[in-house]
Amino acid sequence: MTKEFAVPPVVFPSGGNPSAVNIQKRRVPTAPFQPTRATNPSIPFMSFDIGSVTTAATSSSTLYGGPISGNTSFEAEEPLLDELGIHPDQIRKKTLSILNPVRVNAHPHRDSDLSGPVLYYVAFSLFQLLAGKIQFGVILGWIVICSMFLYVVFNMLAGRTGNLDLHRCASIVGYCILPVTVFSAVSLCLPAGGVVSFVMAGLFVLWSARVCTSLLVQSCPDCDEHGGLIAYACFLIYTLFAMLVVF
């Protein structure tokens, strides 16, 4: 026996073509995606409204106390050299105090800086380079070692009354190398290994040692009795730099 099933008839509304229904469904236009616009967005410049940019700029200027003026901001800033710790007027005063070995003024050297010593170190190295001697590293290393040596010697002699720090000691040693730098420039016009070179080397070494000793002794009033030992240490230091020029 066969069992019969009732199958409903299939009706195609568009003339018997089943693909027409799909075509009509594909041709139905859909609306593009549009983001929702907030009435009062927390971040105005993130909104999609172009007119809100002007509103954001106005609100930001009002929030931070009015329109920003470029002239007032630049006038309030310090000069670039002062921000870098370079004071040309201070370097000039310290240089003039060293040029007079008879009366040494220690007042400008109360504030230590390394801008002037670096300038004199570069000048000394360049004069040596003109003489055919590449001694940039040697001079820099000797300045560091001599500053540490003089710092230890001075504080041992001064005892508890000594208030010389390493930064100020390096500043004094660097500024007092100016006479040796001048000797290095003068030696370019002198015959190498002559008697005149040795005599001038001795004079410039005494000049540097005299100025350095006066600055150190004036920084500690209780060190007057140790002036000879401090002068001997300064003489040894600047003799090393003069030997670089002579030999």
Give structural notes.
The protein is an all-alpha fold and 247 residues long. Helices cover 59% and strands 0% of the residues. Helix 7 (136-158) crosses helix 8.
Fraction of residues in H or I helices: 55-70%
Could you report the average pLDDT, rounded to the nearest whole number?
80
How much of the polypeptide forms β-strand, as a percent range? under 5%
| Separate helix tally | 11
Residue windows where pLDDT falls under 50 for at least 5 positions: 59-66
**What's the story with the biggest beta sheet?**
none
The rounded Rg comes to: 41 Å
> Given the C-alpha coordinates, what overall shape results?
elongated
Looking at the chains present, what oligomeric state does this protein adopt?
Answer: single chain
What structural category do the secondary elements indicate?
mainly alpha
> Could you give the distance between the termini?
131 Å
